[in-house]
Amino acid sequence: MAFNISESLLERVRTAATRAKSRAYDDEIKTYINACLYDLDRLNILFDEDDLEDEIVVAVITYVKSKFGTTDASYKESMAKTYEDLRQILMTDKSHKKVT
Fold first, then answer.
1. Which of 4, 33, 67, 73 is 20 to 30 A from 12 in CA distance terms?
2. So what's the pLDDT on residue 60?
3. CA gap 79, 41 in Å, rounded
4. Residue closest to 90 by CA, chosen among 49, 50, 51, 54
5. Residue by residue, what is the 3-state secondary structure of 38-89?
């Protein structure tokens, strides 16, 4: 499932993940953004892909940082844990719960 990834979101994630303006890794970053949004969607976490709230953007950034870039395994693990914690918070937040 492919989500609508705005240029603004891509730029925010690229800057957070690489601290660079280079577009060399955009395809890989987009893949991770899509994977994160899919993960949130499959857990029935409500978000507007055309206007993501900051807490969703932070979840996306931590997810991407857990997968991309640095070879520092402990940093990636800490980002994965942070993503899991944020995901759990979003799952229990009624304003982010899809009605099924």
1. 73
2. 98
3. 20
4. 54
5. HHHHHCCECCCCCCCCHHHHHHHHHHHHHHCCCCCHHHHHHHHHHHHHHHHH
